[in-house]
TrEMBL record:
Name this protein carries in UniProt: Alpha-galactosidase
A GO molecular function held by the record: alpha-galactosidase activity
Pfam families registered for this protein in UniProt: Glyco_hydro_36C, Glyco_hydro_36N, Melibiase
Residue ranges of domain Glycosyl hydrolase family 36 C-terminal in the record: 650-729
Organism annotation: Candidatus Companilactobacillus pullicola
Binding-site list for substrate: W201, D368, D369, R445, K478, W479, D480, M481, N482, C528, D550
Length: 733
């Protein structure tokens, strides 16, 4: 591997460069603080870069008396601290035994390692030693025995950097970490806009773009999960950035708990972004000899708009986050019984549905909520993971073997973190429920959450799940989580550990995943939290796919999946074809469109196949054939959000990395009569190659890229209707 990290030891400048990007910072000679110099398109490591810095203009509150250049208030910093005269938001805060929070970390040394430092118990990027290098810069606090290690990992291919931080207590006293972000980034403002992904249940990941104004903007979760409301992702983009042009800094943390991203525009026109664990209600005591490690944050730079940013995230997730055995998988075509039966099922009903599903070509049957204890509604039994023999007289094992005989794999729904009042676990262990005695405990969906910061709780749930998994052939698990933490308190943790609760909760969730995937590596996990309430990079480390949203309406799904595609590859987005009228919106959409949109995800069905016409069954068979044909392309290709010209239309495409094959989906919202001409320019194709379009006509790559693919308003010559769509199969010919 070419060296990706160079150090000018004289001038103390660090260069992290690959062909795509450079990231540069240095040690300030007078104060030994780290000054950020540059992050962006590749520039070579010239010693002259020091001349672009603004350090000599520093002015404000001087760290060294009488030396105005020792002020930090107008410098771009690498990992800013509290109590130094830099009034912007710091990247960390530590409480000292005297009650103050004033730190003074100075540069101590650096080292470079091949690979990436281990993060135990937390999801992280998976790189081999030959894939990447990590620069570890150690800072030492002048007021204590604390050390801070700043880790920067760069690989040779991707326009990205992975950052995280470790604080180590080499002193003799206890220090309390009040805040420790995974990273901070200062960049000179370039008329930047801020991009965030926001929503709520059934409206996940709506893209928001706003200009960055002086002051502080916060994106965060205080729910105990990354949440439906704000994805742990922000991007700074130039005001002219589009899907395919312009600069983007995309930042996303590999974490599923409370997160916080801040964006601050200061008086000197510098934008500071911080990201990592939310410091609200957080504190962590560091005893002598202990350390605390933050989750990793991925920083992506794109000079070709949002699409290039997304492709970089997608490549990182597919090649370095998801477990190797799932990377090249062709997703099974799944049938899930939830919207077909809800709680109202028995073995016969399930087997009838499964039979039909296997006839149309599905190869994974997922039994959703309602198979255990007395669970016949949303009202009880969570935490009592024993099969309901009234519904399933041959048990889960009997059902699983019958489904396997139909030629399908068998999947099962769990909600491991939740508990209902009517269960033995709730009655016997009131101290295992999150919340404090004698104060209110809010219900969410009639249920409570178990205290996963307590290893005994995690162990109990592990054993209950293990009992089922070791006696029944289960190929897939849908791990759901249908409420958030409301009254955060752990009866297991001590008084002064309560600030650790939220983080320890999510570490408990990770530890259960860890144990299950270790013992049952062949089980495909899909995470879910009332749809996309915990759709984040942390979950994808254990569960390589996430149920995209409980809103299965095709029209709404277009926007939701589009937002999800900003960070998450199509192969991770759970998509199902459901019934029309849709159960969430009441909207009627063509089966063809429901299939076309679900195709750009994991793909499956969630409707009563026994209630469909022969024509609909025929269409479903064709959809499954199409999915099989393109599963690999969807899993490995480059995804582009395209620009159409008519206002009520949209399009996206996936193209193979060798440019030989592509799939375009054109989608219409409301239909209008007498509309104009629409076309869409494609990407990723080879200029000189002639492509066949739907086996009916030909166009060259340069034509498709520059003139565009013509789109008919009346798709397929059918009658014009709302929510129509069309797939274009494009292949080198
Ligand atoms: C959540 C999930 C749904 C379904 C139900 C079952 O809402 O998002 O897909 O599994 O729970 O109760």
């Amino acid at each position: 591997m070419n060296t990706l990290i160079q150090v000018d030891t004289d001038k103390k400048i660090f260069y992290l460069c690959n062909k795509e990007i450079s990231y540069i910072f240095r040690v300030l000679p007078k104060t030994q603080k780290l000054e950020h110099i540059y992050f962006g398109r590749h520039v070579a490591s010239h010693g002259t870069v020091k001349n672009v810095t603004q350090a000599d203009k520093a002015w404000g509150e001087d760290l060294i008396a009488g030396n105005q250049y020792s002020s930090l208030s107008r410098l771009m910093q690498e990992y800013p601290e509290y109590g130094t005269g830099d009034y912007r938001l710091p990247a960390f805060e530590i409480n000292y035994p005297d009650g103050d929070e004033i730190s003074n970390f100075e540069y101590a040394n650096y080292k470079i390692i091949d690979g990436v430092p281990d993060i135990k118990g937390m999801p992280h990027v998976r790189y081999s030693k030959s894939d990447c290098q990590t620069l570890i810069v150690t800072l030492k606090d002048q007021y204590s025995g604390l050390k801070m290690k700043l880790n920067y990992t760069i690989d040779s291919i991707n326009a990205s950097l992975i950052r995280n931080v470790e604080v180590v207590n080499d002193g003799e006293q206890i220090y309390t970490v009040k805040s420790l972000k995974s990273m901070a980034l200062d960049v000179p403002n370039d008329d930047y806009d801020l991009i965030t992904l926001n929503g709520i249940w059934a409206r996940e990941k709506q893209v928001n773009r706003e200009s960055i104004n002086p002051g502080i903007k916060e994106i965060s979760s205080r729910r105990g999960a990354s949440g439906h409301v704000h994805d742990p992702f922000v991007a700074l983009v130039s005001s002219e950035t589009t899907q395919n042009s312009g600069e983007v800094y995309g930042i996303s943390t590999i974490y599923s708990g409370n997160h916080k991203e801040t964006v601050e525009l200061d008086a000197y026109d510098v934008v500071r972004v911080t990201a990592g664990i939310n410091d609200d209600h957080f504190s962590w005591d560091l005893n002598p000899g202990e350390n605390f490690v933050t989750p990793q944050t991925i920083l992506v730079f794109s000079d070709r708009g949002f699409n290039k940013m997304s492709q970089t995230f997608h490549n990182l997730v597919r090649n370095h986050l998801i477990a190797p055995r799932w990377r090249k998988r062709k997703n099974p075509v799944l049938i899930n019984n939830w919207e077909a039966t809800y709680f109202d099922f028995n073995e016969k009903k399930i087997l009838d549905l499964a039979k039909k599903a296997s006839q149309v070509g599905c190869n994974l049957f997922v039994l959703d909520d309602g198979w255990f204890a007395e669970r016949n509604s949303e009202k009880g039994s969570l935490g009592d993971w024993r099969v309901n023999y009234k519904k399933l007289p041959h048990g889960l094992d009997g059902l699983s073997s019958r489904i396997h005989k139909l030629g399908m794999d068998f999947g099962l729904w769990f909600e491991p973190e939740s508990v209902s009042e009517d269960t033995p676990i709730f009655k016997q262990h009131p101290d295992w429920i999150i919340g404090i005695k004698n104060k209110s405990h809010s219900q969410g969906r009639n249920q409570y959450l178990l205290d996963f910061s307590n290893p005994a709780v995690v162990d109990n749930i592990y054993k209950q799940m293990d009992k089922i998994l070791s006696t029944t052939k289960i190929d897939y698990i849908k791990w759901d989580m249908n409420r958030n933490i409301t009254e955060p308190y752990s009866q297991y943790l001590s008084l002064n550990q309560q600030g650790e609760f939220y983080h320890r909760y999510i570490l408990g969730v990770y530890s259960l995943y860890e144990r299950l995937v270790k013992k049952y590596p062949e089980i495909l996990f899909e995470s879910c939290a009332s749809g996309g309430g915990r759709f984040d990079l942390g979950m994808l480390y254990y569960a390589p796919q996430t149920w995209g949203s409980d809103d299965t309406d095709a029209y709404e799904r277009w926007e939701i999946q589009k937002g999800e595609s900003y960070v998450y590859p199509l192969s991770t987005i759970g998509t199902h074809v459901s019934a029309s009228p849709n159960h969430q919106t009441g909207r009627q959409t063509p089966l063809k469109t429901r299939g076309n949109i679900a195709l750009f995800g994991t793909f499956g069905y969630e409707l009563d196949l026994l209630n469909l016409s022969e024509l609909e069954i025929e269409i479903i068979k064709q959809q499954i054939n199409l999915q099989r044909k393109y599963a690999e392309l969807i899993a490995t290709g480059d995804f582009y959000r395209l620009k159409t010209s008519l206002s009520s239309t949209d399009a996206w495409m996936v193209v193979s990395r060798d440019g030989q094959q592509a799939l375009v989906c054109y989608f219409k919202g409301l239909s209008h009569p007498n509309m104009g001409y629409d076309h869409v320019k494609l990407y990723g194709l080879n200029d000189e190659i002639r492509y066949s379009i739907n086996d009916s006509y030909y166009l060259y790559g340069d034509e498709l890229k520059n003139i565009g693919l013509p789109l008919e308003y009346s798709l397929n010559g059918d009658r014009i209707q709302d929510f129509d769509s069309k797939i274009f199969e494009i292949k080198a010919n």
